[in-house]
Amino acid sequence: MHVTLATNPGRASRPNEDFVGAVPGAVVLLDGAGIPGAEALCAHGVAWYTHRLGGTLLGGLSRADGRDLAAILADAIAETAAAHRATCDIADPSSPQATVLMARADRGRLEHLLLAESYLVLDQVGGGVRVVTDEREVTARRECSVPLAGVTPGTPEYDHIRASCALALRARRNQPGGYWIAKDDPRAAWEAVTGSVALDELNGIAVLSNGASRIVTPYGLTDWPGVRELLATDGPSGVIRRVREFEAEVSGGPDALVPDDATVAHYRLMP
After folding, report:
1. Cα–Cα distance for residue pair 26/110, rounded to 1 Å
2. How is domain 2-134+180-268 classified at the CATH fold level?
3. Staple partner for 74: which of 57, 184, 189, 246, CB 3.0–4.6 Å?
């Protein structure tokens, strides 16, 4: 397999909270999350969490010891939690956490695992594209935001309801019927979206963080087959560059966009 990687922070003034890395036959992508200003909960921060967890995952994958992806993730979550449990309030809902996407070629198959919102694009032999994601976080956010419908943004009422919606969403995190994300509880790993496909059915794969997937939704700059073509011509950096160009075009208008950290990895299966 041949892999190319690219990542870009949403804002130069803040650390990139995405993580991407690869070992032979496997790739890991994390998109960090946390509440701004929550330094009192965790002195390390979200970027530290994603890099610590991501590095631990790569170490687990590199051992090729036969463990399944969920077991590798569970051990990595437990190890990362132990690294800052004594100094940080890791159980608080606002402490650092991350989406997880793992993909591994093993015994003729491409195995995948996803927790929360990131995107695995399967470039299928014969020309088709299939996208795998964990929709539970998006679904929970949509359901929790229902009370905001028809309320004018920027008003005290809107701000009050929005805060209540945020609390409702946090209450669904790592709970049955809600959504799952890597944080302090290794049991989340066993709730991940998993699957596999035969390697001989694929030309390659791509993985995208939420900030990079905006090229399709919500920006509508292309579709997923278009992402595949862009990767073939311009690589991962070309996808991110197109996202940033669009965000720059509307940065001064009333619909200004807030850029997010954007990360893409592209694996091509070598003949």
Report:
1. 9
2. Phosphatase 2c; domain 1 (3.60.40)
3. 189
| Sheet with 262-268: strands ordered across | 2-8, 262-268, 202-208, 119-124, 129-133
* Other beta carbons within 10 Å of 267: 24
- Return the closest-CA partner of residue 134 out of 152, 148, 153, 120: 120
The token pair at 176 is 């049955």
* Tokens found for residue 154: 């920027």
DSSP 152: P
Do 112 and 94 form a contact (C-beta atoms < 8 A)?
Answer: no
Q: Which two tokens stand for residue 254?
A: 């009333």
At 18, list the tokens.
């995405």
Return the amino acid letter for 192: A
Strand partners, 23: 26
pLDDT digits (tens, 9 = 90+) for 82-124: 999 999 988 888 889 999 999 999 999 999 999 999 999 999 9
Amino acid identity of 174? N
| pTM summary value | 0.92
